């Protein structure tokens, strides 16, 4: 299917209901007639299932992103803690940062 957004609708005309699928093609909305009766019901069911599959995929991607962000947050916290312990250990051992660069041992320390 082309287009970014598909919209399905049933339209009632006179005494019958017809099934249409609207989609955007080149910035314009184009309606595709899919009929009435059992064929239209089958097309509507297929469209509904496809829409539910897309929604489930979006939900799964969001859940995975949230899970990875939680792990990343924990790793960042651990990294910050290790960095603080390392700095404290070096300072207590007589080292300093030379112009915010390499760690160097103090000459008279």
């Amino acid at each position: 299917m082309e287009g970014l957004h598909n919209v399905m609708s049933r339209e009632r005309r006179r005494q019958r209901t017809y099934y249409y699928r609207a989609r955007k093609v080149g910035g314009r909305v184009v309606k595709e007639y899919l009929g009435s009766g059992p064929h239209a019901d089958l097309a509507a069911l297929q469209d509904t299932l496809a829409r539910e599959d897309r929604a489930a995929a979006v939900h799964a991607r969001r859940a995975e992103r949230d899970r990875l962000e939680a792990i990343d947050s924990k790793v960042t916290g651990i990294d910050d803690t290790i960095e603080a312990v390392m700095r404290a250990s070096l300072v207590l051992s007589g080292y300093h940062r030379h112009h915010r660069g390499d760690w160097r041992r103090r000459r008279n320390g």
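DSSP finds one helix and five strands in the chain. The longest strand covers residues 16-25.
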